[in-house]
């Protein structure tokens, strides 16, 4: 039987199981996975039980739990489809020329994203950008999103006084991104749908949305319009915390208004409105590596007074997390430098909050065991280690803390949760797994191979519960599944990065079928 997107198979036939800590007796033998009401109800040797109802032929493919991306800026990632890609820009002059040649968006602005200026031979300057772009407001967003390069027309449009560089960093840069992302829903929602469809084609069933806005209303609107491709947990930023508390939001609750906005049941009997839930308080406490603002114990090379920035001091962070915890809201604390990670762990200690540290890119050796002791998840982006390897070896050459300590965190018992930080890296869990397991890309020697993790850990970290509480394919579990062409636990780097997914199921319903 040929099944299409939206249908709910009763049996996945001739599949093979894989994953960590399996208790089933099947090994690599083919099995049938029986589904009902959005759940796995039985796993049996292939053909041992009647294959009644709708059958999806896995054709010997490997079934894994549905994958999650635990850190996505959803609208900003979706909008990148209409922005000028600048990842290949080799200089400031080159990036400016690319923008000058680009057609403006319908709103009259040019927007590019993804530049990495750390190794450019020239320095971004306002005059360079103005000469290439003229009077058209032009915005170039750094790959790490912590800085934005604007021409004079854009700076004046946004109410900023031009200086010699045209660069805005940290909060002013975030404000520019918020304004650029605040497009009409008729523009953003179709792009979000396209993003979700692409994610489902990679086996993704859920994501944590950390857009810098009041996210609940947007997701209720999308559900009412028929969005049904992914599960979503949405973040709450400090400027919205009082509102969230006053309105009674708690982490894990179904988005309010969703049930009334979308009462349709899927073929599995589960409400599509329950796909979107309240997530954590998101606090950005320091900068980034690429913008040289991550808060570090040692100064940046050639800049002895620059240790990065702490954008939220410890007392304020403790207050925010205390109020969130008392209201039943988890915490997700952005910390990249070792000083910021220490402060975040101190705040978790002081408040009894639960949740995650986002990024954990440079961690003092003495702080690594604290994640597990405090029950704080390490929400990390393995592709960043590969993207930033040369930058880390230069900009952080004098640091004594451990960069990108995946293996050390895993060995200490910390719960790893993998993500992309899209648009910083593409939303692709297979790339994240490949980077974590092989610590390389493009044929280069592995970078800091002692921080590799095994493939089973990487796969688990890419599921809903993370490496310490991985999703499984067992009776009673959610029918959130993906069928892929290779066993991820035995795949080489190229096979992981190019993994073909033939089917993805969300609550037993097909969200992708090849």
UniProtKB/TrEMBL annotation:
The organism's place on the tree of life at top rank: Bacteria
InterPro entries the record matches: Amidohydro_3, Metal-dep_hydrolase_composite, Metal_Hydrolase
Limits of the Amidohydrolase domain: 54-511
One Pfam family of this chain: Amidohydro_3
PANTHER family associated with the record: IMIDAZOLONEPROPIONASE, PROTEIN LONG AFTER FAR-RED 3
Protein name: Amidohydrolase family protein
């Amino acid at each position: 039987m040929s099944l299409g997107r939206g249908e709910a198979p009763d049996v996945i036939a001739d599949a093979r199981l894989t994953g960590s800590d399996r208790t089933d007796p099947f090994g690599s033998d083919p099995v049938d996975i029986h589904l009902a009401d959005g759940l796995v109800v039985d796993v049996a040797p292939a053909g041992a039980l009647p294959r009644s109802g709708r059958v999806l032929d896995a054709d010997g493919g490997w079934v894994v739990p549905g994958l999650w991306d635990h850190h996505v800026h959803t609208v900003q990632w979706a909008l990148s489809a209409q922005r000028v890609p600048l990842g290949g820009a080799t200089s400031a002059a080159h990036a400016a020329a690319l923008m000058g040649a680009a057609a403006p968006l319908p709103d009259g602005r040019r927007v590019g994203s993804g530049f990495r200026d750390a190794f450019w031979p020239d320095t971004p300057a306002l005059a360079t950008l103005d000469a290439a772009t003229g009077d058209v407001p032009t915005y170039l967003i750094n790959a790490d999103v912590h800085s934005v390069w604007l021409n004079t027309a854009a700076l004046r449009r946004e109410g900023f006084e031009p200086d010699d560089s045209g660069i805005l960093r940290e909060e002013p840069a975030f404000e520019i991104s918020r304004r650029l992302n605040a497009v009409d829903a008729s523009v953003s929602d179709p792009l979000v749908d396209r993003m979700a469809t692409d994610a489902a084609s990679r086996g993704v069933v859920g994501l944590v949305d950390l857009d810098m806005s009041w996210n609940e209303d947007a997701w209720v609107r999308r559900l009412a319009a028929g969005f049904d491709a992914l599960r979503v947990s949405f973040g709450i930023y400090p400027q919205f915390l009082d509102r969230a508390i006053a309105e009674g939001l708690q982490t894990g609750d179904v988005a309010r208004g969703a049930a009334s906005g979308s009462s349709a049941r899927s073929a599995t009997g589960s409400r599509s409105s329950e796909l979107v839930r309240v997530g954590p308080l998101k606090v950005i406490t320091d900068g980034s590596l690429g913008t040289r603002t991550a808060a570090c114990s040692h100064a940046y090379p050639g800049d002895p007074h620059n240790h990065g920035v702490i954008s939220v001091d410890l007392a304020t962070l403790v207050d925010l997390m205390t109020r969130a915890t008392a209201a039943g809201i988890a915490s997700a604390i952005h910390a990249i430098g070792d000083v910021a990670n220490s402060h975040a762990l101190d705040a978790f200690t002081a408040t009894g909050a639960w949740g995650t540290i986002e990024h954990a890119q440079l961690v003092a050796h003495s702080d690594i065991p604290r994640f597990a002791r405090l029950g704080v998840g390490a929400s990390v982006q393995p592709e960043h280690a590969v993207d930033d390897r040369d930058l880390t070896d230069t900009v952080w050459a004098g640091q004594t803390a451990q960069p990108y300590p995946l293996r050390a965190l895993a060995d200490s018992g910390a719960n790893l949760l993998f993500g992309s930080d899209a648009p910083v890296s593409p939303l692709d869990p297979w790339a994240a797994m490949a980077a974590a397991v092989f610590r390389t890309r493009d044929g280069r020697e592995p970078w800091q191979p002692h921080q590799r993790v095994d493939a089973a850990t990487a796969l688990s970290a890419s599921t809903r519960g993370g490496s310490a509480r991985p999703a499984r394919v067992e009776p009673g579990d959610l029918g959130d599944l993906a069928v892929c062409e290779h066993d991820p636990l035995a795949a080489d780097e190229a096979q992981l990065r190019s993994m073909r997914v033939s089917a993805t199921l969300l609550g037993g319903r097909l969200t992708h079928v090849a």
